[in-house]
Design goal:
Arc Repressor Mutant, subunit A, two-stranded antiparallel ribbon, 9 helices
Length: about 240
């Protein structure tokens, strides 16, 4: 199937299922080209690491069969690796990571949005150290003594939550600006909102727990999205 083949996706124009949050679809999936789906499939693996097809398709609200076809095509091109067994799923190969960044760079430059995304990245980076410190405070009450936060001190937890609410107020405009540039960035604000709603309801694991759609997970993925889009290596970023 050629790279400009159109997938018959009219049957998937319903609201995507993503942690029961209201996440709008990335672009008009009813008229999405296979090249677009390939970019999103590779990029979903960049964000999620090792995962199954449905996780990627749900992330962007695209058809699972079309996503699976894109991943199988990427497997033939040696851009992804498939593992089946006790834990089954897809992951990017080294060449796949390079290809994902190439596709993102092409999209970025063709749209003429490099400066705008760079500006958004710099604004995000200005918040990142405070986010990391806030997550540490949520997990550890005394960093030097390594006293874990057992969440039995409501006043302490509320002080940390106040910092998170401030960060949320500041990161949401950045995410919205990015979504106005590329639809694929529209996945972040609803997920931030959902995590905050769960925290407000007393579900404390929605702050930092990994391998779920916690606030920290969404923050990490937005960071990774910006790094991939701009072709910045995380290790190089941390060295400056």
């Amino acid at each position: 199937m050629g790279m400009n083949t159109w997938f018959p996706l009219s049957h998937v124009c319903n609201e995507a299922k993503l942690v029961q949050a209201k996440v709008r679809h990335v672009g008009n999936v009813c008229h999405m080209q296979s090249s677009d789906i390939t970019l999103l499939a590779l990029h979903g693996l960049r964000l999620k690491g090792f995962t199954e097809t449905d996780t990627v398709s749900d992330l962007y609200g695209i058809d699972s069969d079309a996503t699976d076809a894109a991943l199988k095509g990427a497997l033939e091109a040696e851009h992804v690796v498939r593992r089946d067994g006790r834990r089954s799923g897809w992951s990017l190969s080294k060449d796949g990571r390079t290809e994902n960044e190439r596709l993102l760079a092409t999209q970025l430059d063709e749209a003429g949005h490099r400066d705008a995304v760079q500006s958004a990245y710099e604004q995000f980076l200005g918040l990142n150290s405070k986010m990391l410190a806030t997550c540490t405070r949520w997990q550890v009450k005394d960093a030097e003594g390594q006293v874990l936060n057992d969440h039995t001190d409501p006043a302490y937890d509320e002080s940390v939550m106040a910092d998170l609410r401030e960060l949320d107020d500041r990161v949401q405009p950045i995410a919205n600006e990015l979504a106005s540039l590329f639809d694929r960035f529209s996945i972040y604000v609803p997920r931030f909102d959902h995590a905050m709603e769960q925290l407000k309801a007393g579900e404390l694991e929605w702050f930092t727990r990994p391998v779920m759609e916690s606030y920290h997970t969404v923050w990490f993925e937005l960071h990774e999205d910006l790094l991939a889009t701009l072709g910045i290596d995380r290790a190089s970023e941390q060295a400056h």
